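Re: that backbone. C-alpha cells:
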C-alpha cells in the first residue's frame, strides 16, 4: 500500500474505521484470545485522525467494547469453520464486510470467499484488501437480492453478518433471510443480535442523527428459536450467548469484572449469536 487511503470525518467510509480500530485494539489487549494482524496493518494504510479514538481507548467500558468485538468475531468464525468441516468447498459470505478479514481467517484452502458491501465500501476494500485467489469483493445492497446469482453455492454456503442487522428493519431481516433460505438450501446464516432494550442503546446515537423515532421497527430478538423459526418452514433458528456461549472467557487477559459484565450482556441485554439453518 504505497499511497494511504484518506478518509474524511462524517462520511460513510468512516464507518469502516471504527470496527477496524476496535479489532486492532482487541489484538493488543487480548492477544491470547484474539488476533487480527490484518487490522493493525490496514490502520497503517489509512490517512485518518485517530486521536479521538486513542483518547478514550483506555476507559473501562471502551476496553469492554473491544472485548465484545473480539468475542463476536471469534463466535462467527467458529460457526463458519463448523460449517466448513462438512462442506469444505462452500461459499463463505461476509454480509456487510467493511474491512473485516474473517473470511480469509477461515479459509481452509478449498472454500470460496465473498465479501459484500456498498460500492464505496468495496472501493476502499479493493485498495486496502484486494481480492485473492478464490475471493470475490461484490458491491451491492444486501436488500437487493440480485447478488444471490453471484454466489457459487454448489459446495454449500455459510453467510455471516457482524454488527449489521441492528440497523435493519425487522421486516427487512425477515424478507432477506426467507429469500436466502429458498435460494441457498442447506446453507447457514449466522449473525449477532440483541433484545429490544440493547438495540435501543446500540442504535441511540445513529437513530438520533438520522431523526428516526420508531426504534421499535428495528430488528431485535429475545428468543431466536421461538421468534425466528416461524419466519419460514425452511428456517431452523437457534442461538447461543454472544459473550459466553462459545467460551467461558477464562483467559488471563480478561478480568473478573469483564466476565461479570459478559454475563449481564448475555442475560439482561439478550446479546446472542443467532444461527439460521436452511432446510435442504
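Recovered sequence:
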Amino acid at each position: 500500500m504505497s499511497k494511504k487511503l484518506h478518509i474524511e470525518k462524517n462520511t460513510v467510509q468512516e464507518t469502516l474505521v471504527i470496527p477496524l480500530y476496535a479489532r486492532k485494539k482487541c489484538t493488543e489487549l487480548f492477544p491470547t484470545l484474539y488476533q487480527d494482524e490484518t487490522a493493525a496493518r490496514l490502520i497503517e494504510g489509512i490517512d485518518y485522525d485517530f486521536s479521538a479514538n486513542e483518547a478514550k481507548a483506555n476507559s473501562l467500558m471502551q476496553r469492554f467494547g473491544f472485548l465484545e468485538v473480539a468475542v463476536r468475531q471469534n463466535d462467527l468464525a467458529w460457526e463458519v469453520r463448523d460449517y466448513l468441516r462438512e462442506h469444505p468447498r462452500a461459499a463463505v459470505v461476509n454480509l456487510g464486510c467493511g474491512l473485516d478479514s474473517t473470511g480469509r481467517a477461515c479459509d481452509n484452502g478449498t472454500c470460496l470467499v465473498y465479501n459484500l458491501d456498498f460500492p464505496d465500501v468495496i472501493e476502499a476494500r479493493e485498495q486496502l484488501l484486494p481480492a485473492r485467489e478464490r475471493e470475490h469483493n461484490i458491491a451491492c445492497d444486501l436488500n437487493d437480492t440480485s447478488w444471490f446469482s453471484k454466489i457459487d453455492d454448489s459446495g454449500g454456503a455459510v453467510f455471516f453478518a457482524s454488527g449489521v442487522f441492528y440497523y435493519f428493519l425487522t421486516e427487512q431481516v425477515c424478507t432477506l433471510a426467507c429469500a436466502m433460505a429458498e435460494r441457498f438450501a442447506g446453507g447457514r446464516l449466522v449473525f449477532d443480535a440483541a433484545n429490544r432494550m440493547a438495540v435501543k442503546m446500540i442504535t441511540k446515537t445513529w437513530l438520533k442523527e438520522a431523526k428516526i423515532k420508531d426504534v421499535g421497527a428495528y430488528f431485535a430478538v429475545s428468543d431466536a428459536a421461538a421468534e425466528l423459526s416461524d419466519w419460514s418452514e425452511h428456517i431452523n433458528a437457534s442461538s447461543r450467548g454472544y459473550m459466553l456461549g462459545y467460551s467461558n472467557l477464562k483467559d488471563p487477559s480478561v478480568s473478573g469484572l469483564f466476565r461479570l459484565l459478559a454475563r449481564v450482556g448475555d442475560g439482561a441485554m439478550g446479546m446472542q449469536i443467532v444461527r439460521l439453518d436452511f432446510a435442504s
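Residues 232 and 243 are 28 Å apart (CA to CA). The radius of gyration is 18 Å.
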